[in-house]
TrEMBL record:
Keywords, sorted A to Z: Hydrolase, Protease, Serine protease, Signal
Presence of keyword Protease: yes
Protein name, as recorded: Prolyl tripeptidyl peptidase
Signal peptide feature range: 1-21
Recorded name of the encoding gene: ptpA
């Protein structure tokens, strides 16, 4: 009996210890600096080895570091290069002998591989190769190369081997200073059209083809040729199956505008025959045709398209089929979401880029479509019609068991519960949103409510599991992310529903959603807060000028004045489309729908956060709103983040945003009634 009691005691002790071990803490801002993940794995030797990018934070610089690592069966992971120089964007050559990667490192002699670009723009890189059998990495070309900076974005940029592996195609600018000798001597800058947010410092991107050496020495290329003509921006090049031609997208018109989060100009598809670099136009739609993907037999391609020129910055896109003929091409839209139709469409509208492996065979294509909060994979048979078909998709590659676990220093964290909700807005329109509620160990309902409107407005909230959302939920806030009218994923009419009505129906969608949460007992009617970025910042600035129900607000990189937005932003078409005119054509409409117009009515304590180098929503708008609030004695503060563009990326700045926003809310979460009207 004594023995049995001892066993019971030991079992209870183990259970108690296990329970203590399972006590989880909320996500910490320090977790930002504990990132350690294996990315872009390439499996070698029939699964016995894996080369990957190890991404972690350099404690000295407090910035992300990416380097080449390798793990072999039965051995510990190890760095592939001494000193762990920067590396990312891995590809295996068709013959399996080389791993291609991108890097910001200098050439072996210490010479910079390219002229630098500003820290707040897209990372510039060059191309390197390293033997899979082990050895020293070699650059594609050395000093004196004909190209400049390899672009790393998702719209223009692509690096890819030819089907036979003997050539390499990539996108890069020429790396030249556009200034004249006099301009350089006198240190003046001429305003020249560029691609705006994310592309500062780059010249027009060109497509280049490198003929590779059979046995690389100091460099990997024996010759490199630019195949695109003129000073236009070309991108997303695709090899034909036989390697005889490539297809790219480009806007070859004088009217250039940013494509960062915005694809609404006259992008067409162009075929380039490699034996003579002859350029042939394949599509001629009024709006964009982009994301070309060539069929396995090389006889056709699919792409995304919209008939709207200078329409919304993110549209409802069609799937377009282009038949490649000897004398040119013919194209047809598989199903036009911009024409009236009855009932449910035959397939969902594709999201804004097609997969490189979208062709299942010469007739069937697969793509992802946005359907409400979900992203749904679908397939169509181009020869049978637009109806979605059932197919057996190839299995997704399994993660190699050789790879180390992700974020070992972070481990599990406490998480809030995520739920999808639906409610009727003021006019009966059904709206969908996501609510992330605190764990039971943190708070009980009704919770403090944090409204987080998404950016865009032609974008959507899709999940409540993001770091920022969980950070606030595990500190007692129910985080509400509404997909108000204007959001993507709900069809063309819903997308168009906030045109000429910013701050009207979309605001009511949000407020009726808040009312719904209060009625359900989820949200405390007297403890409500709002935080938004970009158009979410617009909505935050707008809400505090229209209602006094929020205890505190934080607006980050916000649109506060539509007139200024047109004049100073890199995206004039955003304002032109959604306000249906230029500032001098619709001045009253722009004034009516600008948060700055109502700044004198604001009583809510409002924190303003802004990047100093934001090209999309310029810092002037944040300063103007801040000045108006100061003059009307609103409790406010403005914080500037140097060397940041529209997204705030630097880890110390992201830490500051989170802690400062939380402190602002906690400071103003006082007992008593919310502000009266």
């Amino acid at each position: 009996m004594v023995r049995l009691s001892g066993i019971v005691f030991l079992c209870l002790l183990v259970m108690v210890q296990a329970a203590v071990a399972e006590e989880l803490i909320p996500p910490q801002v320090g977790d930002l600096y504990l990132t350690d993940v294996a990315l872009e794995p390439i499996t070698l030797d029939e699964g016995k080895s894996v080369v990957y990018v190890r991404q972690r934070v350099d404690p000295k610089t407090r910035s992300l570091k990416r380097s080449l690592w390798r793990v072999d069966q039965g051995q510990e992971p190890r760095a592939l290069e001494a000193g762990e120089p920067d590396a990312f964007g891995l590809q295996l050559s068709p013959d399996g002998k080389w791993i291609l990667f991108l890097s910001t490192r200098p050439f072996p002699d210490g010479t910079p591989a390219f002229a630098p670009v500003p820290p707040y723009t897209d990372t510039a890189a060059d191309i390197w190769l390293i033997p899979t059998a082990g050895g020293t990495a070699v650059p594609l070309a050395g000093p004196g190369k004909p190209y400049g900076r390899v672009i790393t974005d998702r719209f223009y940029g692509r690096v890819c081997f030819s089907p036979d592996g003997k050539r390499l195609m990539f996108v890069a600018d020429e790396g030249k200073d556009p200034r004249t000798e006099q301009e350089r001597r006198n240190n003046v800058l001429i305003v020249r059209e560029d691609q705006g947010e994310g592309y500062e410092g780059y010249g027009p991107t060109q497509v280049w083809v490198a003929d590779l050496l059979a046995e690389p020495g100091n460099v990997a290329a024996k010759s490199i040729t630019r195949i695109t003509p003129g000073d236009f921006w070309y991108g997303d090049p695709q090899w034909s199956p036989d390697g005889s031609f490539v297809v790219v997208h480009a806007n070859r018109t004088p009217e250039q505008e940013s494509v960062r989060y915005s694809i609404n100009h006259n992008y067409d598809l162009w075929k380039i025959t490699l034996n003579d670099n002859r350029l042939t136009q394949l599509t001629k739609g009024p709006g964009p045709e982009f994301s070309p993907r060539i069929s396995p037999d090389g006889k056709r391609l699919v792409c995304l398209s919209s008939p709207r020129y200078k329409g919304p910055h993110r549209d409802v896109y069609n799937l377009t089929v282009v038949e490649l003929n000897e004398n040119g091409a013919t194209s047809r839209v598989l199903f036009d979401f911009h024409q009236p139709y009855n009932g449910k469409p035959p397939h969902g509208s594709p999201e804004y880029t097609l997969s490189e492996t979208c062709w299942l065979d010469n007739s069937r294509v697969t793509f992802n479509s946005l359907q409400g909060l979900k992203t749904v994979r679908q397939a169509v048979n181009l020869d049978a019609g637009p109806e979605a078909i059932e197919v057996e998709y190839p299995p997704a590659p399994r993660r190699s068991p050789l790879l180390p676990a992700s974020n070992p220093q972070i481990g599990k964290r406490l998480r809030g519960d995520v739920a999808v909700i639906h409610w009727k807005s003021f006019d009966g329109l059904e709206i969908e949103g996501v609510v992330t509620t605190p764990p039971a160990s943190v708070a009980k309902p009704p919770y403090k409510l944090l409204v987080m409107p998404h950016g865009g407005p032609h974008h959507r909230a899709g999940s409540g599991y993001g770091f920022t959302t969980q950070f606030f939920a595990t500190r007692g806030y129910a985080v509400f992310q509404p997909n108000f009218r204007g959001s993507t994923g709900y069809g063309l009419n819903f997308l168009n529903a906030d045109r000429n009505d910013f701050g009207g129906g979309d605001m009511q969608d949000i407020l009726t959603g808040v009312d719904y949460l209060v009625k359900q007992g989820i949200a405390d009617p007297k403890r409500q807060f709002v935080y938004g970025v970009s158009y979410g910042g617009y909505m935050t600035s707008w809400l505090v000028g229209q209602t006094h129900q929020f205890r505190a607000a934080v607006a980050q990189n916000a649109v506060t004045d539509l007139n200024v937005m047109w004049h100073l932003s890199d995206l004039q078409s955003w304002t032109e489309y959604d306000m249906s005119g230029y500032p001098w054509e619709v001045p009253e409409r722009m004034r009516k729908h600008s948060p700055l117009t109502y700044a004198h009515k604001v009583k809510t304590p409002t924190l303003i956060l802004h990047s100093t180098n934001d090209r999309r929503c310029t810092v002037a708008m944040g300063k103007m709103f801040y000045r108006a609030l100061k003059e009307t004695d609103v409790d406010t503060q403005m914080v500037l983040y140097p060397d940041e563009g529209h997204p705030i990326r630097q880890l110390p700045h992201r830490e500051d945003v989170l802690l400062r926003t939380l402190d602002w809310f906690e400071k103003h979460d006082v007992q008593g009634d919310s502000q009266s009207e």
